[in-house]
Amino acid sequence: MSKHTFTSKTFLSIVLLLIYIPIISLVVFSFNDSKSLIQFTGFSLEWYVKLFESGTIMDAVFTTILVAIISTIASTLIGTLGAISLTKNKKWLREWILNFNNIPIVNPEIVTAISFFVLFGAFQIERGLMTMIIAHIAFSVPYVVITVYPKVRQMDADLISASSDLGATPLQTLWHVILPQIRIGIIAGAAIAFTMSFDDFVISYFASSGSAVKNISIYLYTLKRGIEPTINALSALIILVIGMKITFDYFKTQKNLMEEEE
Amino acid sequence: MEKEPLNNVKNTQKLDEPLIKLIDLAKEFNGQVVLRGIDLEIEANEFVTFLGPSGCGKTTTLRIIGGFVEPSQGDVLFQGQSILGIPSHKRPTNTVFQRYALFPHLDVYDNVAFGLRVKQEMLGRFTRIKDLKKSLKIESNSNGLTKSEFKKLFQNHKQAYLANVQKIKDDMDEKVRKYLKLVGLEGYENRRVHKLSGGQQQRVAIARALINEPKVLLLDEPLAALDLKLRQEMQYELKEIQRRSGITFVFVTHDQEEALTMSDKVVVMNHGEIQQVGTPVDIYNEPVNKFVATFIGESNIIEGVMKTDFLVHFDDQDFKCIDKGFALNEEVDIVIRPEDIDIVEIKDGWIHGIVTDVVFKGVHYEIDVKTNARTYTIHTTDVQPLGKEVGLSFLPEDIHVMERSN
Amino acid sequence: MKPFVISKPKIKTKRKWTFEGFLGVPYQAVIGFLIVIPIVLMLIYSFQSRASSQTFTLIFTLDNYLRFINEPIFVSLMAESIGLAFVATLISLLIGYPLAYIIARSNTKTKTLLILLITAPMWINMLLRTKALEQVILMTAPELIGTNVAIIIGMTYVYLPFMVLPIYTVLSKIDMSLYESASDLGANKLQTLIKVIIPLSISGVLSGIMMVFLPSATTLVVPKYLGAGRFLIGNLIENAMIAQGDFGYGSSIALLMAGLILIFLYLIKKVDKYTEGGDE
Question: Could you tell me which residues are beta bridge partners of residue C30?
Answer without folding.
Answer: none
